[in-house]
């Protein structure tokens, strides 16, 4: 029935109307937009006509129930066939209630809370008139110089895949058609956008197909297996061809091999960027290649509307390719119920009740607390409510704690660090505050005030980090240390000899030299979102026990980058960090190992691992092994531990990583409580892509590792028999 409806509509459409469905324009182009009439610069140069706008299929960046309804109203009056617009936006980690950035969410290792964050984001977005979110971003990341690592959940394909599924479930729910509190998800950026050379945004990606399939593709596939409705192309090349023009990637792999029949959209301007890439001589060729590759919607350039008609009429492109894309777009509009209700739940009155409500803020607070990672603690945390605390640093009173993709977030809605700490003190006057330095500059007066403020304190809390513009898209940095003025501030505080805690707000793993050796405790908070100050206070005062674990390694130095746990061993591995024999694979001046490894994180209690064992030393092809460990809370307060299982294939047909995450379990334990944690190991978990890219396992030796992070593990050998 749906197919018939869609086909009937396509039969009614002119070629111009069909091509219009393939165009996405930003809100200022549309009647009813609050910015309508203010199209300047590059937008004006696009040469968009009123007819183009009438036929356009989707809108980028519509915000608020009133505006989206006005745009839809005006469009339906102008569009000859009354085809509703799709409203799309970047709802990456919250709409108005901003959750931690995805890299921080990755450090929670908590799929239920991740799903809940997407569910709340969808609810706030949907009631504001948004139909599609450009999320989740599931690009695997290994280079913290790249600004967009903050938008990923980390360096591991297994963990990223789990988060991809959770986010899609949260955004889309179980019944996208009838559940008006949901939005369609768009997984991005297909493919391998997270591996640009030099950590520089939009830069070349160059890797083997095996590496692509092994590490970078699994999370996209997981999102699509969960029912994700859309895919966004990446800006980068894949095997020498820009993703947006990559027929092998889009048609052969995504469409034919994986069976994806949803909508593919380009990233902003990516169709036209084939010209500077050097694979298209002009916009007509760019349109030809993108449509041939299977890109249905062109975002914010006009190659399709300017040239597809002439390509079809000349016989260079079959009209059936245009029809294919239109069919997918109209099918999604039907699936969202837009032909029956073009406003799809956009409701100003309900929006006022739902957005930033207390329930949503509490969920944001919980996830923020579980996303922070305690990296160091030398008997200074948790703080006590009777202590005199000096809060120093550029983020002490700042609302810039949401990150660069918090599109609708407002600094005024953020719980700031000083406000959060005051709620925990026996007397609010016990807290004194000084900025100490700005993010990238400092004055003698600022330093003097910070020193004077801290002199009488029992404890100094430093609120440090990167301004949000220093990460995110186009926020790449070659030097990933804290800016020098903040390092200078740390030195001034150190001279006072006070117990000192550093709380870090940043969008990437940093080189923490100049920080970690000069303070007594380090809490990596990332960008925690709307409830930042409340969550930080919960952690610093021990109302919540830190449980976050790194989902991306913290480098010892930028010179190691990329540094990641699941690397290859090489033919001349360094057997131990202190082995300095020259002709081994190591640096002369720094260790090979990161400063803090994948999976690392401390707690206010201690967990002891005993009796690590396998149920057998042989795994039959159609059987399973049980790996188990007894975990005991040997400290004096309740806490959560994330028990991690890794496996290594000792000898493969192609080189295998030194270890790969294959499972994890979070356990909550009271003091002196023990539990047995078990994992199942099956033959399917041991498969990999062979020389001919066949996905299978090899009989032979393996090692299982169980521990609290990728470094601190106990090894147990076993053998697969086939």
TrEMBL record:
It catalyses: Hydrolysis of terminal, non-reducing beta-D-glucosyl residues with release of beta-D-glucose. Gene3D superfamilies: Glycoside hydrolase family 3 C-terminal domain, Glycoside hydrolase, family 3, N-terminal domain, Immunoglobulins. GO terms for molecular function: beta-glucosidase activity. SUPFAM superfamilies: (Trans)glycosidases (SSF51445), Beta-D-glucan exohydrolase, C-terminal domain (SSF52279). It comes from the Bacteria. Residues 641-710 form the Fibronectin type III-like domain. Its EC number is 3.2.1.21. It is an enzyme of class 3 (hydrolase). Belongs to the glycosyl hydrolase 3 family. This is beta-glucosidase. It comes from Fictibacillus arsenicus.
């Amino acid at each position: 029935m749906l197919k018939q409806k869609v086909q009937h509509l396509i039969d009614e459409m002119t070629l111009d109307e069909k091509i219009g469905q393939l165009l996405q324009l930003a809100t200022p182009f549309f009647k009813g937009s609050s910015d309508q009439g203010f199209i300047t610069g590059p937008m004006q140069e696009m040469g968009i006509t009123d007819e183009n706008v009438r036929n356009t299929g989707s809108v980028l960046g519509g915000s608020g129930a009133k505006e989206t309804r006005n745009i839809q109203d005006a469009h339906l009056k102008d569009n000859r066939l009354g085809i509703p617009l799709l409203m799309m936006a970047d709802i990456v980690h919250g709409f108005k209630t901003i959750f931690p950035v995805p890299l921080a969410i990755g450090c929670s290792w908590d799929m239920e809370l991740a799903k809940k964050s997407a569910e709340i984001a969808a609810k706030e977005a949907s009631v504001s008139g948004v139909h599609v979110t450009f999320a989740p971003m599931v690009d695997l990341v290994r280079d913290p110089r790249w600004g967009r690592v903050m938008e990923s959940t980390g360096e591991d394909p297994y963990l990223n895949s789990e988060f991809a599924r959770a986010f899609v479930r949260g955004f889309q729910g179980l019944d996208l058609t009838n559940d008006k509190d949901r939005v369609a998800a768009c997984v991005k950026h297909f493919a391998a956008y997270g591996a640009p050379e030099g950590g520089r945004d939009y830069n070349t990606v160059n890797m083997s197909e095996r590496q692509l399939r092994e590490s970078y593709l699994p999370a996209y596939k997981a999102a699509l297996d969960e029912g994700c409705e859309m895919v966004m192309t990446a800006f980068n090349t894949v095997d020498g061809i820009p993703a947006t023009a990559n027929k092998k990637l889009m048609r052969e792999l995504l469409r034919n091999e994986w069976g994806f029949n949803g909508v593919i959209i380009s990233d902003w301007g990516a169709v036209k960027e084939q010209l500077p890439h050097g694979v298209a001589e002009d916009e007509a060729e760019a349109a030809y290649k993108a449509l041939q590759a299977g890109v249905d919607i062109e975002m914010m350039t006009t190659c399709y509307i300017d040239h597809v008609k002439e390509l079809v009429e000349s016989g260079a492109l079959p009209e059936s390719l245009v029809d294919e894309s239109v069919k997918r777009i109209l099918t999604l509009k039907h699936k969202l119920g837009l032909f029956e209700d073009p406003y799809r739940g956009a409701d100003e009155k309900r929006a006022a009740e739902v957005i930033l409500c207390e329930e949503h803020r509490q969920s944001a607070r919980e996830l923020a607390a579980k996303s922070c990672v305690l990296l160091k603690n030398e008997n200074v945390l948790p703080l006590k409510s009777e202590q005199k605390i000096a809060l120093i640093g550029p983020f002490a009173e700042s609302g810039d704690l949401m990150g660069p993709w918090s599109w609708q977030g407002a600094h005024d809605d953020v719980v700031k660090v000083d406000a959060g700490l005051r709620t925990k003190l026996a007397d609010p006057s016990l807290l004194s505050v000084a900025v100490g330095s700005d993010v990238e500059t400092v004055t003698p007066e600022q330093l003097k005030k910070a020193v004077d403020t801290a002199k009488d304190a029992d404890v100094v809390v430093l609120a440090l980090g990167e301004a949000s513009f220093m990460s995110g898209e186009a926020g790449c940095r070659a030097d990933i240390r804290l800016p020098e003025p903040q390092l200078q501030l740390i030195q001034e505080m150190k001279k006072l000899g006070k117990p000192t805690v550093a709380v870090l707000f940043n969008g990437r793993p940093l080189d923490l030299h100049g920080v970690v050796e000069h303070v007594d405790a380090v809490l990596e908070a990332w960008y925690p979102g709307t409830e930042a100050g409340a969550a930080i206070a919960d952690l610093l005062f021990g109302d919540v026990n830190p449980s976050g674990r790194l989902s991306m390694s913290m480098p010892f130095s930028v010179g190691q980058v990329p540094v990641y746990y699941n690397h290859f061993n090489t033919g001349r591995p360094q057997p131990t960090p202190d082995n300095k024999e020259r002709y081994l694979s190591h640096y002369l001046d720094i260790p090979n190992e990161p400063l803090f490894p994948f999976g690392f994180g401390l707690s206010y209690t201690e967990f002891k691992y005993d009796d690590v064992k396998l149920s057998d030393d042989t795994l039959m092809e159609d059987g399973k092994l049980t790996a188990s460990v007894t975990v005991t809370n040997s400290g004096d307060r309740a806490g959560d531990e994330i028990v991690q299982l890794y496996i290594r294939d000792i000898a493969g047909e192609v080189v295998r990583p030194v270890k790969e995450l294959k499972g994890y379990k979070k356990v909550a334990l009271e003091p002196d409580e023990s539990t047995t944690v078990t994992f199942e190991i099956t033959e399917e978990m041991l498969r990999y892509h062979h020389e001919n890219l066949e996905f299978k396992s090899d009989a032979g030796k393996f090692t299982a590792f169980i521990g609290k992070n990728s470094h601190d593990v106990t090894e147990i050998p076993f053998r697969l028999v086939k």
